[in-house]
Amino acid sequence: MLKNETLHLSVDCVVFGYDDSGLKVLLINQKEANNEEVGQNPMSQLPGDLILIDEGLEAAAERVLFELTQLKGVYLKQFHAYGDPNRVKQLKDRAWLRSVRTQPEQRVITVGYFGLVSLQDHDPQPASFAGGVEWIDLQNVGPLAFDHNEILDGAMDALQNQLESHHISFELLPKKFTLSQLQSLYEVVLEKKFDKRNFRKNVKRMSHVVPLDEKQQGVMHKPAQLFSFNPDHLDD
Amino acid sequence: MLKNETLHLSVDCVVFGYDDSGLKVLLINQKEANNEEVGQNPMSQLPGDLILIDEGLEAAAERVLFELTQLKGVYLKQFHAYGDPNRVKQLKDRAWLRSVRTQPEQRVITVGYFGLVSLQDHDPQPASFAGGVEWIDLQNVGPLAFDHNEILDGAMDALQNQLESHHISFELLPKKFTLSQLQSLYEVVLEKKFDKRNFRKNVKRMSHVVPLDEKQQGVMHKPAQLFSFNPDHLDD
């Protein structure tokens, strides 16, 4: 039996950004790749690259994300490994692979990380290796390179599954937020509406959502109370 | 920068088995490995091996589990990839690696799958490659080879997190079960006690837990009603 002799491993980062206009994902595009074929038919993709020989997976995700997008200190969590033997062998991806990889024919298994960023607190700058970095509204994401649409779907599933139980919603909000902002975030991520009164009743039971002695700034009418997240007050 | 040239990828299976005596995990031991050094200091480990060059990850997990334990048709789910650069470089694991691998010094990244088996429905047979296959009570698991204790802990976390929301508890029960059996399983996996009356009230709301027109067999006193799981009746 032939066991894998020269297999490659990469990490791919699905970084979700959120602000009052909705949920976005961070994509890089290949348009400035040093390759004519690619230049004529550029695609968008998730920020990702091969790991280094002595690098841990999470360290690789942090490094690659920083190298490609200049984002640092992002909440990152592994969610799934993708290992279809043909995942980088589609025709659409060959030219780009030849332009960036020394062994473009190699099988690549990738480990997906999802990241969470409040767009009110961060503003990522594009880096030179990637053709460009952009926050794309989730509903406007088109066909991506490789199996990156599948990886994006997997990250979205992980985010939906973990939003409530893992207390990660706060990574997507500004440090001080209103209950309307928290409810909108839940509605956008979980793709359903909540009753305002029930939602607030449930939030009041969460001792880790702490009311502040502060109200919204710059609002003309009825500024709402601000809240913050205190992980020390987590019930469990 | 040195990117991974000859990295290896494996799958490891954490198969949980359950019966009325508790939760167990399937371990193989190295004692019959063709190597004197190992023979003097055998360790237990999770069933796992390198993937084949053209094999998907889930297919690899199924194959490896079957080759090492003869188990087939098991519910298997990927939960985490482990990639510490030193995870197979501890002294305790060198002799065994030399006895089974052509490149024992290679870095190995492993993808963990957890499996669920009702021990009232299955009886795994040991296979020839592994020294032996045994169901070990979770609380009796000692130090394992490599980082397999950490992988076991990760699988347990995944099982606890997914038990309720993913409707997987039924994989650990016989096809027909009593509500006492369902409650005991929840208590063992989630490591907490439930109030019998509340537990039953909650179960009655689950349309996928279907009461059967049948009672326990072979019980002297008050045979309990049997239930079965119907995935077609899942609410969401």
Helicity of chain A, as a percent range? 25-40%
Q: Please state roughly what percent of the residues of chain A sit in beta strands, choosing from under 5%, 5-15%, 15-25%, 25-35%, 35-45% or over 45%.
A: 25-35%
| Count of beta strands of chain A | 9
Outline type of chain A: elongated
Structural class of chain A: alpha+beta
Q: Which chains have the largest interface?
A: A-B, 30 and 30 residues
Please name the CATH architecture of the largest domain in chain A: Alpha-Beta Complex
Using the coordinates above, name the CATH class of the largest domain in chain A.
Alpha Beta
Rg of chain A, nearest Å: 20 Å
Ranges of chain A where pLDDT stays below 50 over 5 or more residues in a row are: none
From the N-terminal CA to the C-terminal CA of chain A, the straight-line distance is 48 Å
Number of domains of chain A: 2
Map the helices and strands.
Two copies of one chain form a homodimer.
Chain A: E1 8-19, E2 22-29, H1 36-40, E3 44-45, E4 48-50, H2 57-69, E5 75-82, H3 91-100, E6 108-118, E7 133-137, H4 148-162, H5 179-190, H6 196-204, E8 209-215, E9 225-229
Parallel strand pairs in A: 1-6
Antiparallel strand pairs in A: 1-2, 1-4, 2-3, 2-7, 5-6, 8-9
Outline the structure in words:
The structure is a homodimer of 236-residue chains. The first copy, chain A, is α+β, with helices and mostly antiparallel strands. Chain A has two domains: 8-162, Alpha-Beta Complex (Nucleoside Triphosphate Pyrophosphohydrolase), CATH 3.90.79; 175-233, Arc Repressor Mutant, subunit A (Orthogonal Bundle), CATH 1.10.10. Helices cover 27% and strands 26% of the residues of chain A. The first copy, chain A, has helices at 36-40, 57-69, 91-100, 148-162, 179-190, 196-204, and strands spanning 8-19, 22-29, 44-45, 48-50, 75-82, 108-118, 133-137, 209-215, 225-229. In chain A, strands 1, 2, 3, 4, 5, 6 and 7 form a seven-stranded mixed sheet that branches. Chain A has a two-stranded antiparallel sheet with strand order 8-9. Chain A is elongated, with a radius of gyration of 20 Å. The interface between A and B is medium-sized, with 30 and 30 residues.
